[in-house]
Specification:
alpha/beta; Pathogenesis-related Protein p14a; 6 helices; about 15% strand; lipoprotein; coiled coil; SCP_GAPR1-like
């Protein structure tokens, strides 16, 4: 299982690690991220995801931690294989659609003829991974107005075992 980072905008100032969170993921934001995920998943002929309260709580807690430290790195939960995780940072207030569209845009770098993990396509493959059933979403803003978004997936995608990409990352239907 692999995880993915995505940054947009200017670099944050990581010297001020006590940034105050002024915004968190709303139910509306999480539902927007979910809807865009499911619209894309439908194009690939894979089942829709459902929001999971437990994954939402964990994603929100971690988004708040990232907004405080202003260091974009994956959580220990994802590193230990307990969930898949996509991260995004931007210097502005990101919409759910904007974040999901940026992750999905990595499809342009993915080779369906030569499937497998790449750091240039991991957000996209996590989004459309066929065997993933549930997701959670968190969002937090740092004191400088930059935002951190965390999406968590269960079961995790981007499993590098032989044949897994062929089975789980299907080309879009015509």
């Amino acid at each position: 299982m692999r995880n993915n980072l995505l940054e947009t905008g200017r670099k944050s100032n990581s010297n001020n690690i006590y940034g105050k969170m002024c915004k968190t993921a709303s139910k509306q934001f999480a539902e927007e991220v979910l809807k865009v995920h499911n619209d894309y998943r439908k194009k690939h002929g894979v089942p829709p995801l459902k929001l999971c309260k437990k994954l939402n709580r964990g994603a929100q807690q971690y988004a708040e931690e990232l907004a405080t430290t202003r260091v974009l790195k994956h959580s220990s939960e994802s590193a230990n294989g307990n969930c898949g995780e996509n991260l995004a940072w931007a210097s502005y207030d990101q919409s759910g659609k904007d974040v999901a569209d940026r992750w999905y845009s990595e499809i342009k770098n993915y080779s369906f003829q030569n499937p497998g993990f790449s750091s240039r396509t991991g957000h996209f493959t996590a989004m459309v991974w066929k065997n993933t059933k549930k997701m959670g979403v968190g969002k937090a803003s740092a004191s400088d107005g930059s935002t951190f978004v965390v999406a968590r997936y269960d079961p995790a995608g981007n499993v590098v075992n032989p044949g897994y990409y062929e089975e789980n990352v299907l080309p879009p239907r015509k």
